[in-house]
Design brief:
Elements (H helix, E strand, L loop, with lengths): L4 E6 L5 H12 L3 E3 H5 L11 H12 L4 E4 L7 H6 L2 E5 L4 H22 L4 H4 L1 H21 L2 H8 L6 E4 L2 H10 L4
Helix pairs in contact: 5-7
């Protein structure tokens, strides 16, 4: 099927970014990470003012071709309304999501450590500790943010275009059905 506006959602660590990249490779559609819209610089950056965030969402909706991905609910309603397909990744447990987050964190930390030279590897201990605290906070938040009931209620209005992936095979089937516009 040919889709030009795809929204991907799901809990933290569910594979939204990975799926968005795969769909980009298939379709060539631009990908918009909602973390970068929700917070200045993404991640743990300061929250973006609602008016600025809403204007960024409106700019995406005004275009014909896009993939958006993020855990955010509520203020993403314009994207959900405009999307041709909403893909909900609901195939992993909170324990599996936490494991993915820890592996992503460890991989990033090792990469950073390898790119630093000499004493710089050891003078950044404060940064490493701060990142570890941020990981702990993200893991605590993931338990509540990955609640399927919350997603089910929030996505109910768009059930006609909702693709709920409860297994890895569901994700593969959806990915295999998408073609380039």
């Amino acid at each position: 099927m040919t889709l030009r506006r795809i929204h991907i959602t799901g809990g933290q660590g569910s594979g939204k970014t990975t799926l968005a990249a795969r769909l980009h490779d298939i379709t060539g559609l631009p990908v918009h990470e909602l973390d970068l819209i929700a917070r200045i610089g993404g991640g743990n950056g300061p929250e973006r003012p609602a008016a600025e965030r809403d204007a960024m969402i409106a700019a995406i909706v005004a275009t014909d071709d896009w993939i958006t991905e993020g855990v955010q609910l509520g203020w993403t309603s314009p994207l959900l309304e405009a999307a041709e397909a909403i893909v909900w990744l609901d195939h992993i447990t909170s324990t599996e999501a936490s494991g993915r987050m820890v592996r992503r964190f460890a991989s990033g930390a090792l990469h950073e450590l390898r790119t630093r030279r000499g004493r710089e590897r050891f003078t950044r201990v404060g940064d490493y500790l701060r990142h570890t605290r941020e990981l702990g906070a993200a893991l605590r938040h993931a338990r509540s943010a990955n609640d399927p009931d919350t997603f089910e209620v929030s996505l109910a209005a768009w059930s006609g275009k909702l693709v709920r992936c409860t297994t890895a095979a569901d994700i593969e089937a959806f990915t295999g059905s998408v073609s380039s516009p």
